[in-house]
Amino acid sequence: MAKVINLAERREQKIQKQLHSPMQGWIVWLKCPKCETREYSELRMPEGRIHKCGTMVEEHEVEIDIRAELTVSLRNSELISELLAKSNAKGIMKKFLKSGRAMLEHLERSEEEYRKRLQLMSQQECTPYPEEWDPEEKGLEIKKMDPLGLQLTAARQPELYFPDAS
Ligand SMILES: [Zn+2]
């Protein structure tokens, strides 16, 4: 007997799969041993690269799920905009109003820059995971930044890859 294909079910499965399928990418951490600078790049260069001072940089490639990184970054931005809104009002943020605002704006720019790089490395349109997606449940190591509660994925912690650096 032929198997009855349930099209609606198939369609639903496909949607679920798209909602939860990761998108592979790489973040490359670069360290100049001479200048002691660290930065990241979305470009993999097997031949290596030279810092502006003329020194060959140390490289460390970190495999990432672009969607996971995007989702965590968007959640950080959401939190930052909530904190910025609070800093306009009276209350807990008031005591560090001016420097607090500048710091939050700086953090927001880093999040935007990070997402720009993620978009550059993804071959197709990249969408965040749904609301209920939990990075830690998925085995992603997250470091919470005190006191704001922003979340740093392993891909954004260069000290993990260059442990000797201070
Ligand atoms: Zn250098």
Q: How many alpha or pi helices?
A: 3
Q: What's the average pLDDT?
A: 87
Q: Are any ligands bound, and if so which?
A: zinc ion
Question: Proportion of β residues?
Answer: 15-25%
SS content category: alpha+beta
N-to-C series of helices and strands: HEEEHHEE
Query: In total, how many beta strands?
Result: 5
Tell me about the largest β-sheet. Answer: 3 strands, antiparallel
Stretches where pLDDT is under 50 for at least 5 consecutive residues are none
Radius of gyration: 20 Å
Distance N terminus to C terminus? 69 Å
Largest sheet, order of strands side by side? 2-1-3
Helix content: 25-40%
Shape: flat
Protein model, in words:
With 166 residues, the chain is an alpha+beta fold. The mean pLDDT is 87. It contains 3 helices and 5 strands; from the N terminus they run αβββααββ. The chain has a 3-stranded antiparallel beta sheet. It has a domain at 66-160. It has helices at residues 7-20, 66-88, 97-121; strands spanning 24-31, 38-41, 58-65, 142-145, 150-153. 37% of the residues lie in helices and 17% in strands. Strand 1 (24-31) and strand 2 (38-41) form a beta hairpin. Zinc ion is lined by residues 32, 34-35, 51, 53, 55.
